[in-house]
Design brief:
- The protein contains 5 helices and 10 strands, in the order αααβββββαβββββα.
- It has 191 residues and is an alpha+beta fold.
- It has 2 domains: 1-36; 45-190, 3-Layer(aba) Sandwich (Protein Transport Mog1p, Chain A), CATH 3.40.1000.
- The chain has an 8-stranded antiparallel sheet with strand order 3-4-5-10-9-8-7-6. Strands 1-2 form a two-stranded antiparallel sheet.
- A hairpin with a 3-residue loop joins strand 9 and strand 10.
- The chain starts with a helix and ends with a helix.
- 24% of the residues are buried.
């Protein structure tokens, strides 16, 4: 009987030592997984944009419509001289009310930096005062940055199309809701 009892006690001791070893192994694995950095989304996006070919002036011309929100295009400009593609046009609705659209092709080294400067770094930032606000909104399956400056009567919405085109729309003497309607029209034409 004493031998049987001794065997049971030794079995428990052996099992408990084995489980401690397993716990120690688990702790080591946890520490290793915590010290291995996750894939950085920003770095991944930067590399993707740097490898993308830049759009030509003709390709950017096709992207901006000749008419937007019942307004005809005016003062179209395009350039690639800054190391990334840039196209802009104005869409005057009345003498005091209008939309300006700027399209940034964020391909290449400098285009990638522009993507983060104009879009990524502003996501999830929110502030509001009596005279203005800035917030991130859901927009056409993605995110957009919406701002409004009451004293200037200026609305702005910034969003991304095709994972690389940053669109900045400014609505002079327009409520944010009005500009968002125009932005959805532009998104539908380009996407």
């Amino acid at each position: 009987m004493k031998q049987f009892l001794l065997m049971i006690l030794l079995s428990f001791a052996f099992v408990s030592c084995g489980s401690k070893k397993t716990e120690a192994e688990n702790k080591d694995a946890t520490v290793k997984s915590m010290t291995t950095p996750p894939v950085d989304e920003k770095e991944k996006k930067s590399e993707e944009l740097k490898k993308a070919p830049q759009l030509t002036l003709e390709q950017m011309r096709i992207l901006l419509p000749h008419e937007l929100d019942s307004a005809r295009e005016k003062n179209y400009q395009a350039s690639t001289q800054f190391g990334y593609g840039l196209a802009a046009a104005e869409y005057p609705k009345t003498k005091t009310k209008g939309i300006k659209v700027t399209l940034y092709d964020c391909a290449g080294e400098l285009g990638s930096a522009n993507y983060f400067e104009n879009y990524w770094n502003h996501l999830n930032a929110q502030n509001q005062t009596e005279s203005d606000f800035k917030k991130t909104i859901d927009f056409e399956g993605g995110k957009a940055i919406e701002t409004y400056k009451k004293d200037m009567h200026l609305s702005t919405i910034t969003f991304v199309i095709r994972d690389r085109l940053v669109i900045v729309m400014e609505g002079k003497n327009m409520a944010p809701e009005e500009l968002e309607v125009a932005a959805k029209q532009l998104h539908a034409k380009i996407a």
